[in-house]
Amino acid sequence: MYARETFRQTHDIGIGSLPIIAIISTFLGAVTAVQFAKQFLDMTLPLPMSLIGYIVRDSLILELVPTIGSLMLAGKVGSNISSELGSMRVTEQIDALEIMGVNTKAYLIMPKILGALIIVPLLFASAIILGMVGGFLAGYFGDFFSWEEYKSGLQDSFTSYYMVIFLLKCYVFSFIVTSVSCYQGYYVKGGALEIGAASTRAVVNSSIMIIVTNFLIAFLFL
Amino acid sequence: MIVVENIKKSFTEQSVLKGISAEFYPGQCNLVIGTSGAGKTVFLKCLVGLHKPDSGNILYSDRKFNALKAKEQKKLRQEMGMLFQGNALFDSMSVEENIRFPLDMFTSKTEDEKRSRVEECLQKVNLTGAGKKYPGEISGGMMKRVGIARAIVMEPKYLFCDEPNSGLDPKTALVIDELIRELTIENNITTVINTHDMNSVMGIGDKVTFLHKGLKHWEGSKGDILSSNNKELTDFIFASDFLKQLRNKANL
User: Fold this and answer.
1) How far is CA B86 from CA A55, A138, A144, B83, B182, in A?
2) B68: contact with A, CB 8 A cutoff
């Protein structure tokens, strides 16, 4: 039952968030490429357009996908988790599980946290690829650079340590989103209004924690 | 058998249970009655372990619930079934999945065994054919029956019902009462029912415990209620002017 629940959560968090993460990351890559290309063109000192690929790649890996993606997950997955658990609490479904002898924290919370830890790195890795594609399409059709220029930038000076930072952010942020939301939902007292308030608190608190932790990771590890 | 020894429970400054002792016997419908706020729900939640009493003991066939280790408590809880006031059905699961859930969680039965046990429970509560429906698609009375089926699927020794008739019409309420009574007698279950429905009290009250302001004010059988001189109890039972007039006419 625990394994089945973990699988279900993995599916819900991963597949459920794929469309929104895909759209956001594609446009994040696109806007990064266009903005830098414009700035390069405006500069008096000419810079090679191949740098755009390099900038898009590292921005997506280090910052845009893990941070903006996690903020999106806080909004989508976090509020969902919090309202699901909150509603189970006020309708006594959690009490029903307790009376049956189910360890409700292990059954309701652990699968969500584990599911997110399993799927979020994969989800964000796909988002990076989509972001790179988005960057290329925007720059290519905007007539800023060619495929060869962009590709050479993507392949230039790849620092594998950045992938470690990326994974660290994925794990820490997904843990924050799920644990904060579970906490807010699990301990709801009251009714429909309190479920809504808990859901809001889940999003706000996890977003703030993500932003602060993002700075700490950058400060300590980069 | 459940023995409750002088349990007390307070929330912050408010004392809800002020020392209640009671005994509940197997094969009987043990009703706990009282006005809203008398402490019935807190009492029931203490019995099932959702609230920890501040003092006192609860013994399940000589096993002191509060003194048991977490593992033993978990095992004891598998001997309990509970019907909630709001049913507490898992709304993302079908009727069948709701009833089957404890079997999936705690037993190593085969698929066929689980299916046949679920079918058996559905038959007992007269819900054959409704297994594929979701809680949102069935009536209040059916939801109660699903709640009962889920509560008895593990063949519990102890059954707790919190306001089983709330929100039901009198006719459906009688059907639910009768169902609980049948299951109690058939399986020799110790059933504790919280209610303020006088139809239930007079219908299935093998043993009635009256709570008032956190204290046990009266105890007896349904037959003793009408002849009781306990002021709080009579005020509770004959609350309306109509019933008071009836009582005076009948010289009770």
Assistant:
1) 57, 55, 63, 8, 22
2) no
